[in-house]
Amino acid sequence: MPRLGSSDLEVHPLALGGNTFGWTSDEAESHAVLDAFVEAGGDFVDTADAYSAWAPGNHGGESETIIGSWLKAGGASRRDAVVIGTKVSQHPDFAGLGAANVAAAADASLARLQTDRIDLYWAHFDDAETPLEETLGAFHALQEAGKVRHVGISNYSADRIREWISIVQREGWAMPVALQPHYNLVKRQPFERELAPLASAHELGVTPYWSLAAGFLTGKYRTRDDIAGQARSSSVEGYFSDEGLAVVAALDEIATAHDASIASVALAWLQHQPTVVAPIASARTLEQLPDLMAASSIRLGADELASLETASAAVPE
Ligand SMILES: NC(=O)c1ccc[n+]([C@@H]2O[C@H](COP(=O)([O-])OP(=O)(O)OC[C@H]3O[C@@H](n4cnc5c(N)ncnc54)[C@H](OP(=O)(O)O)[C@@H]3O)[C@@H](O)[C@H]2O)c1
Asked: CA 238 to CA 297: how far, in whole Å?
């Protein structure tokens, strides 16, 4: 199993996204997906304190709460068998990355997750209002207290990541171990140009989000009419272009040759990228999960990688 950056965490090469839990999947379906994920060899779950504050009737914390009840039901052996990543800065009650807020948000996450430690704690989005030293001091304190094992960076610019690294090196604090960028076959920049070199240089394990382009890279949306009324329509909308549909067509051809699904090949492509440790993808239902888990057994040939490279390079940035 691949190791996550410079950490001691060894993870399955597909991380399960948790933003469906409490949004498009209720607790029972979410628990069924988590059970099946672990049964199929999965061990790495991604969530955030804010999931899913955007959904009508929700306030944030619903995903962590569902993961927490699942962890509790499985006892210590289940907790020890999985790597739980969660994020801070976007929960309506814990916005930003000020030191006191990070400390309080982490305690709230631990309570919802019903655990004593967060394996991977992500800065969800940069907070330009708070000095980076203050945020990193708060993460250092959480690590010293044993509440957080490792720290990761999501949605930061290359300059801010460089600043982050120089601060922790200067202070003697732990290095970040992972990056979580928006990266997939129809959205390759700025990750490849600006962030991948940093990931290589500093041993940051990359776990891309929106690995399936919110469902566009499953091939189930071929016209704009197909997305009307879908819960994810606003996210999928942005991926629609003739060039994006040509990527789906290229995936379709390769999927047929491998007797696999389009979704599996899209995830396999990410798994073939040098700095990627584990793409993050969500399954709303039990039926969607096997396509996610099948990805890591697909070996793409040079001609297949070249065909995807050509099709995806044509997608406008
Ligand atoms: N760091 C960040 O800022 C950030 C931002 C976004 C997401 N994330 C993380 O990344 C994870 C993944 O992102 P995401 O869930 O938004 O997008 P995604 O993984 O690209 O797409 C997942 C969606 O695709 C559809 N799908 C999955 N498997 C399918 C299959 N076999 N057949 C047909 N449709 C299938 C489902 O949507 P339907 O409901 O349409 O069926 C599913 O919810 C999130 O859960 C979250 O943990 C992080």
From this structure: 30
